[in-house]
Amino acid sequence: GANFRETGYNDPWPTTPDGTGQALDRITDTNYGNDVANWQALAPSPGS
After folding, report:
1. pLDDT of 1-48, one tens digit each?
2. C-alpha R_g of the chain
3. Report field, pTM of the whole predicted structure over 0.70
4. Residues 6+ apart with CB under 8 A from 40
5. Separation of alpha carbons 36 and 12, rounded Å
6. Of 1, 47, 18, nearest to 9 (Cα)?
7. 37 phi, psi to nearest 5 deg
8. How many Å apart are CA 25 and CA 14, to the nearest integer?
9. With contact defined as beta carbons under 8 Å apart, do 26 and 45 qualify?
10. pLDDT computed for residue 23 by the predictor
11. Contacts of 44 (CB under 8 A, 6+ apart)
12. Whole-number Å distance between alpha carbons of 36 and 19
């Protein structure tokens, strides 16, 4: 099948979730997934 979304995770992505247990969360699904500004570090949600 065709790729619907493709994202590379090289820097300058948020570094807070880099091995600290936090999750990398997409802020808005309608914005580009490869835009670093569209992602944030959040505390993980158990069971999700």
Report:
1. 665 666 666 667 777 777 778 888 889 988 888 888 898 988 887 765
2. 12
3. no
4. 14, 24, 25, 27
5. 7
6. 18
7. -70, -10
8. 10
9. no
10. 86
11. 21, 22, 23
12. 18
Q: Give dist(CA 23, CA 45) in Å, integer.
A: 8
Q: How many CB atoms lie within 10 A of CB 17?
A: 18
Tokens of 5: 């979304």
Tell me how far apart the alpha carbons of residues 8 and 36 are, in angstroms, rounded to a whole number.
Answer: 10
Residue type (1 letter), 9: Y
Task: Give residue 19's identity as a one-letter amino acid code.
Answer: G
Question: Which amino acid is present at 39?
Answer: W
22 contacts 44 by C-beta, under 8 angstroms: yes
